[in-house]
Amino acid sequence: MTAVTWTTEVDRGLCMGSGMCGGIAPELYRLDETDRAEPVHHRIPRDERALDAADSCPASAILVREGERLIGPRP
Ligand code: SF4
Fold first, then answer.
1. 27-60, pLDDT tens digit by residue?
2. Cβ(50) to ligand 1 under 6 A?
3. Cβ(61)–Cβ(48) under 8 Å?
4. How far apart are the first and last CA of the chain?
5. Does the C-beta of 10 come closer than 6 Å to ligand 1?
6. pLDDT digits (tens, 9 = 90+) for 24-33
7. Cα–ligand 1 centroid distance for 40 (angstroms)
8. Counted domains in the chain
9. Contacts for 20 with CB less than 8 Å, ≥ 6 apart
10. Which domain holds residue 54?
11. 3-state secondary structure of 20
12. Among 26, 12, 25, which Cα is nearest to 59's?
């Protein structure tokens, strides 16, 4: 059986560099040299912290998908 993986991305045009995502999930998000967040890996194992980071992002810049379905930020 194939493990379910998620994908995650950061809209760098929206990111305001608060660093909150890296604080919540440092294995998943980091700030680059321009102080914009980027995912450490585009494909990730299911990880609730990705959803927590997406929910907490003040710019709604983090998207998490399971397949084509957008699952984060949560409504
Ligand atoms: S929480 Fe959102 S605004 Fe803050 S660094 Fe992460 S992606 Fe950027």
1. 999 999 999 999 999 999 999 999 999 999 999 9
2. no
3. no
4. 30
5. yes
6. 999 999 999 9
7. 13
8. 1
9. 53, 56, 57, 58
10. 5-72
11. helix
12. 12
